[in-house]
Design goal:
globular; Jelly Rolls; JMJD6_ArgDemeth/LysHydrox; 28% strand; Cupin_8; three-stranded antiparallel β-sheet; cis-regulatory region sequence-specific DNA binding; 12 strands; alpha+beta; JmjC_dom
C-alpha cells in the first residue's frame, strides 16, 4: 500500500508562515479554526534523532504501549519497541477493523522518552491557561485514527506525510467508531456531497497543524510516518 493512498485534491485548511504573530494567532485561529504553520520551528536536530536506526539503538528493548486504532482506543498492548518496529509497523490492512489494528501514538513513558523530547522545538504559540504535553508516534502507511475530539493542540510531521480531516464542533461527521480512517476514506468519503466534506490537508515534514478545542479530526498516514503532537490541556 505504500504510496498508493492519495493526497487530497486541494488543501482546504488555511496556511500561515513565520510572519504570524502570537496576537494574530489568538485572534484568528486559537479559538475558531485550524491552521497549518510553516517555518515556525526548526526540528532538524530532533529529526536526526528519529531515524529508524537511532530510535532502535536508543529505545529498542524498552516497552511501548500500543492503542487500538478506533475512536475510543480502549485496548492497550505493551510490546518492546523493537518488536513494534520490526513486526507491527506495516501498511494498514483495509479489511481490518480499528479494534484489531495496533498503533503507537501517545502513552509515552517520559522517564525513558524524556531525553528525546528535550530536543524537540515546540510551536511558539500557547493557549492561555493551558500547559503542553507531548505525544510521540510512529505508524505505517494507510494507518491512522478515526474521528474523535479533545482539547486543542499542535501536530508536527517529522518523517512521511499525514493527511488530516477536520470538522467544527457543531458538525458531527458520519463515521463508525470502529472503522479505520482508510476504510472511511474508501467507503464513506466518496458519497459525501461537497458541502458535507471536511476541511482537509496533507502535512509534510516540518509543517505543524493547529486544531482548536473540540474540533473533530481523523488522521491518515500516507507513508510510514514519525510525528509528534503537543496537546494543550
Amino acid at each position: 500500500l505504500a504510496g498508493t493512498v492519495p493526497e487530497e485534491p486541494r488543501c482546504t485548511v488555511e496556511r500561515a508562515d513565520a510572519s504570524l504573530t502570537y496576537s494574530l494567532f489568538l485572534q484568528r485561529f486559537a479559538f475558531s479554526r485550524p491552521v497549518i504553520l510553516g517555518g515556525v520551528t526548526d526540528n532538524s536536530a530532533f529529526r536526526a534523532l528519529c531515524t529508524r536506526e537511532k530510535l532502535l539503538a536508543a529505545f529498542g528493548p524498552f516497552p511501548v504501549r500500543l492503542s487500538t486504532a478506533n475512536t475510543y482506543s480502549y485496548r492497550k498492548v505493551d510490546v518492546p519497541f523493537q518488536e513494534y518496529v520490526e513486526h507491527l509497523l506495516k501498511p494498514q490492512d483495509p479489511a481490518r477493523l480499528g479494534s484489531d489494528t495496533l498503533y503507537f501514538f501517545g502513552d509515552n513513558n517520559f522517564t525513558e522518552w524524556g531525553p528525546l523530547f528535550q530536543h524537540y522545538v515546540p510551536p511558539p504559540f500557547r493557549i492561555p491557561g493551558t500547559s503542553p504535553a507531548y505525544s510521540f508516534g510512529i505508524a505505517g502507511s494507510g494507518s491512522g485514527v478515526p474521528f474523535h475530539w479533545h482539547g486543542p493542540g499542535f501536530s508536527e510531521v517529522i518523517f512521511g506525510r499525514k493527511r488530516w480531516f477536520l470538522y467544527p464542533p457543531d458538525k458531527t461527521p458520519h463515521f463508525h467508531p470502529n472503522e479505520t480512517t482508510l476504510a472511511w476514506l474508501q467507503n464513506t468519503y466518496p458519497t459525501l456531497p461537497p458541502a458535507q466534506r471536511p476541511l482537509e490537508c496533507t502535512l509534510r515534514p516540518g509543517e505543524v497543524l493547529y486544531f482548536p478545542d473540540r474540533w473533530w479530526h481523523a488522521t491518515l498516514n500516507l507513508d510510514t510516518s514519525v510525528f509528534i503532537s503537543t496537546f494543550l490541556g
